[in-house]
Amino acid sequence: MNSNKIHSCHLGPEISPEQFITEHFFLYLLEGSMIAYDGQNTYTIQPGDPLLARKNHLIRYTKHKNNSVFRKVVITLEKPFLVNFLERHDIDVYSTQNTNSLLFLPDSTLLQSYIKSLEPYYTQQEEIEKGFEDVKREELLLILLKTIPELKDILFNFAIPDKIDLEEFMNRNFRFNVSLDRFAYMTGRSLSTFKRDFQKIFGSTPGTWLTRKRLEEAYFRIKSEGAKPGDIYYELGFEDFSHFSFAFRKQFGIRPTALLHYSDSTQ
């Protein structure tokens, strides 16, 4: 598809700035590329790739511009819209074993035509003009269900997450900077039950364990792999470098940048 005239577009509520997907959303990359990581899998997203990001999953993105340009179409499929759609259509929903955070979707003539059809409705704020939002959202959903019928079992599953193995989950996802409430929800627990189970399994509070676990990985990557502290603090769950550096020095008695220089001098 020639996308030279298609601008970035966002339809629906804003995507959470957390590394936690609060609502399903459809993404179609127009220009640039993305690398995404969900704790298990790494996804490479190229122009022309349509995909569905699944709610109640963790994900981290790195965007790469093409000649200083990054363009995308994002359509959020929030729960109230999906509930309303389900009430108006005869759809049987079953459980699914698919656990991927991102689902790459097959391209189709219908989908290509849909992306092109958005162009007349763009505003300067990269949003669909009021009055057309639900119409275009419903059109997309009908296309997706016609192309991939099994998506119904993902989109219309409104159940809360089941209780899962806490130790395995936390060891896989400790790098994600999300609240304890999110971690508790994703493991199928109330916050109080999450904290109680966490103490039994790890012998520590979640906050203390998360900080120590992230710092230990940072120490290993800097000392053994020569990773630059400024390049890894965010991906290890720290919001800013100063907090990371302070916590690192408190834990190991040396600044992360000093450890990097020490590692370089001993090689």
From TrEMBL:
GO molecular function: DNA-binding transcription factor activity; sequence-specific DNA binding
Domain HTH araC/xylS-type stretches: 164-262
Keywords: DNA-binding, Transcription, Transcription regulation
SMART domains: HTH_ARAC
Domain of life according to the entry: Bacteria
Family annotation (Pfam families): ExsA_N, HTH_18
Database matches in SUPFAM superfamilies: Homeodomain-like
Listed InterPro entries: AraC_XylS_family_regulators, ExsA-like_N, Homeodomain-like_sf, HTH_AraC
Listed PANTHER family: HTH-TYPE TRANSCRIPTIONAL ACTIVATOR RHAS-RELATED
Name used for this protein in its record: AraC family transcriptional regulator
UniProt organism field: Xanthocytophaga agilis
